[in-house]
Fold:
Amino acid sequence: MKFSLSSTLTLTSGNQIPRFGLGVYKSTGQECSTAVAEALRAGYRHIDSAQAYSNEELVGKAVVESGVSRPDVYLTTKYLPTAEAKSPKDVLSVLRHSLPKIDPSKEGPHIDLMLLHSADGGAEGRANNWRALTEAQKEGWIHDIGVSNFNVNHFSTLPGPVPAVNQIELHPWCQQRPIVEYCKQHNIAVEAYSPLARADERKWNDPVVVELCKKHGKEPGQVVLRWGLQKGFIVIPKSVNPSRIRSNADIYDFELDTTDMEALDGLDQGAAGAVTWNPLDKYQ
Structure:
């Protein structure tokens, strides 16, 4: 499988999304700005933020100051459902807050991908949230819309169109196989957050990972990120460490063979292997 840092995946809209990006969860202040700048210098072209992270403005400013052309950078953010915004009109108003923050550019400001951050709100709430995202997409300032932390049941009551992306926790120890299979069947791109399993020492010291690191001369994080790419996922590792940001992207000079992939597939612990809240099954 020949990949590079510029590899993309085609969404149902026909738009291209970079297969590899930088997550900025809990990145604040100067460390967030530095991380985004370093990632762009290293060749990253996909940055994943969220309203709940309170760093959209930092991301947008860092992109402008990087000197990289805005059309060459793919920007994702997320709307976190709230009890206060119930109608599509109310939600749309909240969505608009993100645009000038994450894209302060003067010409053609837009958000490449906006996700519903969770399935909270019940069937009616999800439907209203989705209608707001659909309206924003029709207006043109959001190019693609998707969801995060949705399970199969959540999709069943969602009005059209079908989401372009479902972003969920994914790594060898938490493979979320039912929802991944559902997404594949419905042409929904699967995006992996926490693809490094938060560098959990017990996981990274697993004999399978240790052996594959020796075999390929790579670090644990590089092995599990390569696994994610070869599974067909979009991966967005988070880091604020400049050297780690670069090493995370150093995964294009080796390939995991069938035996390697099967060994990593065998590490799956289901929901018990999650390292985050992983709220796929928290909402009805």
Summary: The radius of gyration is 18 Å. Strands lie at 8-10, 16-18, 22-23, 46-48, 74-79, 111-116, 142-148, 165-169, 189-193, 234-235. Residues 8-199+233-238 form a domain with the TIM Barrel fold (CATH 3.20.20.100). The longest helix spans residues 122-139.
